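2024-03-11 09:14:02 DEBUG pipeline.ingest accepted 1 chain
2024-03-11 09:14:02 DEBUG pipeline.ingest length=179
2024-03-11 09:14:03 DEBUG pipeline.predict start
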Amino acid sequence: MTDDQQLISVLADIRERGAIGESSLEDAVAHADQYVAALAAEVRTVVDLGSGGGLPGLVIAVRRPGVQIVLVERRQARADLLRRAVSALGATDRIEVVSDDVAVVATTRGGTFDAVTARSFAAPPITARWAGALLRGGGMLVVSEPPVEAGERWPAELLDQHGLVDLGRMQGVRRFRRS
């Protein structure tokens, strides 16, 4: 079984249990691949906020086997699904599932991650707050963006408050760097 076949199979199991709503898993993986493309080559640690059904975290794990990933999902049932998925992918040595609030992770591991990813996690002020707390200096935040530019979603004063610099949109994601 190829990595993508195994990945699609794992994601299909998660979808059957209601944690992924996309009808096309191939399209969902293609969107998650935009996160992979947006991550700098030197990224070695990633925390995915509100991991839900594992998108983009599981796709990043398959595409970037040298990266350590923390999937943060406060809903226990979804965290359990993610743990089963990580095991099925044979990646328990480099993917950790944390079943807790992001605030707990920020308290215990603040300023230690090379990258933060977020797909449908929270509004920009909340996402910026936690990314600013979790990223090391020079680290990256990569978030999903609506298909059409939605005005000033990421105002300069919000980014300044959390030490983030907008690197711009790249297809369906936006990148930020922690100063």
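2024-03-11 09:14:41 DEBUG pipeline.report Helices lie at 3-16, 25-38, 57-63, 76-88, 102-109, 124-134, 156-161.
2024-03-11 09:14:41 DEBUG pipeline.predict end
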